[in-house]
Amino acid sequence: QVQLVESGGGLVQPGGSLRLSCVASESIFSDYTMAWYRQAPGNQRELVAHIASSGSTYYTNSVKGRFTISRDLGKSTMYLQMNSLKPEDTAVYYCSAPIRSLWGQGTQVTVSS
């Protein structure tokens, strides 16, 4: 079973930046669309961004222009660069290969002064 492990979360002030990483135990990024989701307390899990096997990307409207999804196929690693963070970005962020029903354990991002 492929494992996904996220890292890079933490506490940051509004306007700050964080970079999340997702490492896969097997090389799957070139085969499947990979995604970042997030879930805030009391809310449903929502799609933040995804990157297709072709490399094309998608962002939900609330993060466009602030977040960038990327991947390093050689390192089996996916990234989410988050800039200009807002308190409403506070959530647990999950790495996923949705078509394989694969999920990481999540990493907490807290944006607060």
Produce the secondary structure layout.
Blueprint: E1 4-7, E2 10-12, E3 18-24, E4 34-39, E5 46-51, E6 57-59, E7 67-72, E8 77-82, E9 91-97, E10 102-103, E11 107-111
Parallel strand pairs: 2-11
Antiparallel strand pairs: 1-3, 3-8, 4-5, 4-9, 5-6, 7-8, 9-10, 9-11
Describe the structure.
By secondary structure, the protein is an all-beta fold. It is 0% helix and 49% strand. It is built from no helices and eleven strands. The strands form two sheets. Strands 2, 4, 5, 6, 9, 10 and 11 form a seven-stranded mixed sheet that branches. The radius of gyration is 13 Å and the shape is globular. The model has no long low-confidence stretch (mean pLDDT 96).
Keywords:
about 110 residues, mainly beta, seven-stranded mixed beta sheet, 11 strands, globular
How many extended strands? Answer: 11
Largest sheet: number of strands, sense, barrel closure: 7 strands, mixed
Low-confidence stretches are none
Number of helices: 0
Structural class: mainly beta
Average pLDDT value? Answer: 96
- H/E element sequence: EEEEEEEEEEE
Net shape:
globular
Helicity range of the residues? under 10%
CA(first)-CA(last) distance: 40 Å
Which oligomeric form is depicted? single chain
Rg on CA atoms, Å: 13 Å
> What share of residues are in beta strands?
over 45%
Short structural summary:
With 113 residues, the chain is mainly β. Helices cover 0% and strands 49% of the residues.
